[in-house]
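Field reference: sequence -> structure
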Amino acid sequence: MKFRVERDVLADAVAWAARSLPIRPSVPVLAGLLIETGDSGDGLILSAFDYETSARATLPATVTEEGKALVSGRLLADICRSLPNKPVDVEIDGAKVSLVCGSARFSLQTMPVDEYPTLPEMPEATGTVKADLFAAAVAQAVTAAGRDDMLPVLTGVRIEIEGDHIALLATDRFRLSLRELGWDPGSTDATVAALVPARVLDATAKSLTSGTDVTIALSGSGVGEGLIGFEGTVGGGTRRTTTRLLDGEFPKVRTLFPSEHATVARVDRSALVESVKRVSLVAERNTAVQLAFSDGALTLDAGSGDEALATEQIDAVVKGEPITTGFNPTFLLDGLTAIETSIVELSFTQASKPAVITGVDGGIDGDIVDDFRYLLMPRRLLG
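Structure field:
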């Protein structure tokens, strides 16, 4: 194996692939990054796999000898990041891989290639979606995904595909996000669902934003038995990620969104975000920030008893009965910052029931942007 590649192209691809390497690999070779020259003799392939998630990047390179080698992925990433801005020459030298860039020279010990597992094949393409739209949608959806590995089902995002429509749902039991978007299903008119690890989905969507489209490929009908793949074009090459679907039944959460509301309030999103940040400074751990909605105003309070107290009032357009409720300030801020419009609407049925937060387009009297909805459970108020 012998090839030359541009430093920035190599460093970016290695860093991307190395993110998929397991922190504590079950076997030593899984800490390795597989380097292969393409069969056509004009490209380079970098691969990482931990039996759950795979990453495969192709990138342009001048190949003079075909072959493959397995080296420490994180070490290679650190080296590539530090190289001078000059072409990089890589070749196998006995049991080592030689890397030369300008006057910098490195020699890396190889791992046994024959012990490295075969990466799964990309499933048959289901359809394509605009890369920037997909990344924005995923970023909103994962806001409510759980982080407790003891409840693995809730650490995933449920992807529901029906015709030219995709819905992304996530919940950690205390909040719920629903993001809907359109896409091109190609020649199929499939109705399928998949439960994808939120961490993998988020990182993958972000890494493909420089391309035009993302291809989504889904196989297997049984939850936990299938595989989902994502592929996009980056920097003259392709990047492909596959991951196994999570096992378990995602809760039926759509019915949690109420069809009617007793109180609806619209406020400036930035003003509300800054106000929540300020008053929550005095909120003790796991205590709520109180929100009191009345005609023309929203009053925020935090703190209790002899401890520090904070209160602040901002303008609000309130329709319906006055209402006082409370929320975990971190969860509230997560939902507010996930919304992209300057005005947000908070809808309530009653103080003890979940609130729905959505964006409003076109100013305080504008229309609801209902492609993203964030449902938040209230917290018990002290006193």
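Note: The chain has three domains: 2-115, 125-254, 257-376.
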